[in-house]
Amino acid sequence: MLASIDNAHASPVAARVLIVDDDPALRNLIVDYLESHGVNARPASCAVELERELLLGEPSLIILDIQLGQDDGFNLLRKLRSRTDVPIIITTGHRRDEIDRVVGLELGADDYVTKPFNLRELLARIRAVLRRRENTMTPTKREHIRPNYRFGGWKLNSRTRKLIDLEGAPVALTKGEYALLTAFLDAPQRILTREHLLQATRVHEDVFDRSIDVQILRLRRKLEADPSSPQIIQTERGVGYIFALAVESW
Question: Do 218 and 177 meet the contact criterion of CB atoms below 8 Å apart?
């Protein structure tokens, strides 16, 4: 995957990146730049064209403009994240509009850039996000022998990576959420620093510390009865987080 991105003269066959933006000049500029650096870049101007591209197969990464003309970029992001964990970098229109960036990250974006942005920076962020994804997809010996878990009425099947809630219903987890949850389940009722969690989830390279906080927020929304007052994943201010429930493994 990464060879075609890191080598400007490589054949652009491994990484397929969708650029979803309603500005044709900017869209074509991004496509041309990425293609010149060995990335198979595909343009889409709206939700319909995005869906058409998705029917051709899951891309390696999506660059999504949040301010997408007639289409609501946040709704598109929400729909994408409900059906796939493909990495998504959002673009926002104003450096001062921090709310858009925060909402985008909370909805599942992996990173963001603000317009106007440097194309070299965009390429660097694409490389970083794909590196992290490759790291999370690389199995380790520990994962092959990882046990199943029970905690507070919940169950996690490590072989199938399925989380089952108290009612017996499955709860979908992204790869990042799964890695974070298993890091907690391996060390329940112990304070884990943010640095430890970054290392444990193998997304510590080229990533802002806020990424762990965003993953914690997403996981709380799936586990907690009231995410605003978490009882399972608790914050130890200035130190890190603690998984408060007892965990049984088998």
Answer: yes
Cis-peptide, bond into residue 230, ω within 30° of zero: no
| Residue 62, beta-bridge partner list | 18, 88
Share of the chain above pLDDT 70, in %: 84
pLDDT of residue 2: 32
Q: What is the mean pLDDT of residues 30-49?
A: 93
Exposed, middle or buried, 7 (CB in 10 Å: 0-12/13-18/19+)? exposed
Look at the block and give the residue holding tokens 């990576």.
161
* DSSP helix/strand/coil, 213: helix
Cα distance between residue 5 and residue 160, in whole Å: 31
State residue 157 phi and psi, 5-degree precision: -90, 110
Distance CA 128, CA 207 (A): 8
What is the rounded distance in angstroms from the CA atom of residue 168 to the CA atom of residue 250? 18
pTM of the complete model = 0.54
**What is the 3 state secondary structure string of 7-45?**
CCCCCCCCCEEEEECCCHHHHHHHHHHHHHCCCEEEEEC
